[in-house]
Amino acid sequence: MHCPFCKHEDTQVKDSRPSEDGSSIRRRRHCPACGARFTTFERVQLRELMVTKSSGERKAFDRDKVTRSMMVALRKRPINEEAVEMAINRIVQKLEAESEGDITSKRIGELVMKELKKMDVIAYVRYASVYRDFDEIADFASFVDKESLG
User: Among residues 25, 30, 26, which one has the least CA distance to residue 13?
Assistant: First the structure.
């Protein structure tokens, strides 16, 4: 593993432990060249997932993009990183289990909303406002009423 700071080719693992749900391994690493410390995660990947967007464009699935979108919705909310990581693991596992590699961006959005609803209702509404393209306050009110959140 290359050091992300100095690009040294040989870093050392100082500590390894499984994540809470057992789906990944967290490794603390040390670079002997610059002394930097950093964390890596090792996960099982069952198959290469391809996302078909609403425009018809196909792209490789990007787990980091899902993470970023969830973190935006969860910004300043009392949710820990481990809970987010476990939710993302559940999303990826479900996507891998229910497809032969092709998934729609709509399906990803639905799974993210389902996980956010379980974690934090405010983050759920935030994500839905972007995902469902709310234009005005009435869209929020209608969504909250329909979802029995209010």
Answer: 30
User: Order of strands across the sheet with 58-60?
Assistant: 58-60, 50-52, 102-104
3-state class percentages of the chain: helix first, strand second, coil last, to nearest 5: 45, 20, 35
Long-range contacts (CB closer than 8 Å, 24 or more residues apart) made by 15-20: 19/82, 19/85, 19/86, 19/89, 20/82, 20/86
Q: Which of 133, 130, 85, 131 is nearest to 107 (CA)?
A: 131
d(CA 59, CA 53): 8
Q: Is it the case that residue 26 has pLDDT exceeding 70?
A: yes
pLDDT in tens, 119-147: 999 999 889 888 777 888 888 788 778 87
